[in-house]
Design a protein that fits this description.
about 425 residues; alpha/beta; Fumarate Reductase Iron-sulfur Protein, Chain B, domain 2; Rossmann fold; four-stranded parallel β-sheet; globular; binds iron/sulfur cluster
Length: about 425
């Protein structure tokens, strides 16, 4: 699809955007690569294919080419130019085969943040109308429906009421004032609603003054993933104005990795002013409540291992929170590698939403299957609904029978409550709206 006018080619539109974004740290990164190739084996896409085109440094090429043109001494003779063929070749490399996981940066001797260059490159491709149509559609849904998966405010309101009735749990909605604004990912609302109930149970037991808001509930940011900054900003503005209206001091991101990374680490820059509240991932907030003695857990029996969502551990800094919350588990087993060097599930960075990337994504999941099997644990826990969706899909593809649970659901099931709750006796919810 060509989103540009007839007078500006796709290649020119992309090149213009590359140049507009080529400043500060990105330009320094583009200058710094010494082509050592160490990043290759850090990337899951290279690891499962051995195809050199998946070397992370190779993904820098279109932006590096546009950057070189700015330094070309004889510009009137041309110089390096981004071409239609470049766009054709790199679209798959910048969208379908980069989860923006940041693992390559961990090994790069120059500390190059390739994920941030991929994010900028996606903006250039998007400006040229190039990218996966299903990812772009999900991003546009944020503008037209308030959510990538079509959870409009009315749908959100109805689902909250339904969860309250079905699970006999208090889900405060649209309180005038509250200390904490709790947000959701529409992946949870549509596919894993029990994790929303679990968050509420944990917050209620701790006596937190919290609310949901129909004005700002969706924490995912598909505008960022699709390279559409105006949509990224729109999503952040909604959350910020909802939190400001109720005077929230803390905004909690649910089990969603990229939602956390975008708001916490890029939110102020995208918005153009400091965020007027603290942003915490639900695991960080629950760890804080546990440390303050406001929530307690029973001993968790059975062997389990933890998958670190890239944007929560490696790029998020909340690696220890999950382990602290799982310390009541009698048989916790770490994967190898683990923590900040754990492997990606293969579906981050919007890759899960790209149907054409499914085959490659399934291949990548073989790394995770081996990691889990090597621990011998019966169950894998994660704290990201997008990882969970990716892993459930890949599990089905490979007919793999290990259990997969959400961390907040496991914690809610093992919460020491003042009054016994019927929650655990309830059957699983239907997942379609
Ligand atoms: S950010 Fe992750 S997926 Fe992207 S190139 Fe680096 S290691 Fe590969
Ligand atoms: S490890 Fe860093 S310096 Fe080496 S090729 Fe990769 S991006 Fe370039």
């Amino acid at each position: 699809m060509n989103a540009t006018t007839n007078t500006v080619s796709d290649a020119q539109a992309a090149a213009n955007k590359f140049l507009a974004l080529n400043s500060g740290n990105l330009a320094a990164y583009l200058e710094a690569c010494i082509h050592c190739g160490q990043c290759a084996t850090a990337c899951h896409f290279y690891e499962v294919t051995n195809d050199p085109k998946y070397t992370p440094a190779y993904k820098l090429f279109p932006m590096a080419k546009a950057h070189r043109k700015t330094k070309w001494p004889w510009n009137w003779f041309g110089g390096p130019t981004v071409t239609e063929a470049d766009l054709e070749e790199w679209e798959e490399l910048l969208f379908d085969s980069c989860t923006m996981c940041g693992r390559c940066t961990q090994v790069c001797p120059m500390g190059i943040d390739i994920a941030s260059i991929v994010a900028a490159s996606r903006q250039a491709f998007s400006a040229a109308g190039r990218g996966p149509s299903d990812l772009f559609e999900a991003a546009e849904n944020v503008l037209t429906k308030g959510s990538p998966l079509g959870v409009t405010p009315a749908v959100f309101d109805g689902r909250v009421e339904w969860l309250e009735d079905d699970y006999e749990v208090d889900l405060p909605l649209d309180k005038d004032k509250a200390e904490v604004l709790l947000t959701i990912s529409s992946i949870e609302m549509m596919k894993y609603p029990k994790s929303i109930v679990a968050m509420a149970r944990l917050m209620n037991q701790a006596g937190v003054d919290w609310t949901f808001s129909t004005k700002g509930y969706e924490s995912t940011n598909f505008g960022f993933l699709a390279g559409k900054p105006h949509i990224a900003r729109h999503a952040i503005e909604k959350l910020v104005s909802a939190a400001e209206e109720i005077g929230a001091k803390t905004l909690i991101i649910p089990e969603c990795g990229h939602a956390y990374g975008v708001l916490r680490w890029s939110g102020a820059n995208i918005l153009g002013r400091p965020l007027p509240f603290e942003v915490l991932h639900i695991t960080e907030y629950l760890a804080k409540l546990k440390k303050e003695g406001k929530i307690k857990f029973k001993t968790i029996d059975g062997s389990l291992t933890y998958h670190d969502p890239c944007q929560i551990s490696r790029r998020g800094g909340a690696t220890d929170a999950a382990r602290y919350l799982l310390e009541d588990c009698t048989d916790f087993r770490e994967m190898t590698p683990t923590g900040n060097f754990n492997w990606c599930c293969g579906g981050g960075g919007g890759v899960q939403a790209m149907s054409r990337a499914a085959d490659l994504r399934h291949k990548v999941f073989q790394i995770k299957m081996k990691q889990v099997e090597d621990t011998g644990a019966d169950m894998m826990i994660s704290a990201c609904a997008n990882c969970r969706l990716t892993m459930d899909d890949s599990k089905e593809h490979w007919n793999w029978d290990r259990e997969l649970e959400s961390l907040v659901e496991l914690l809610a099931e093992n919460l020491v409550e003042d009054h016994p709750h019927p929650f655990d006796a309830k059957p699983h919810l239907a997942t379609n709206v």
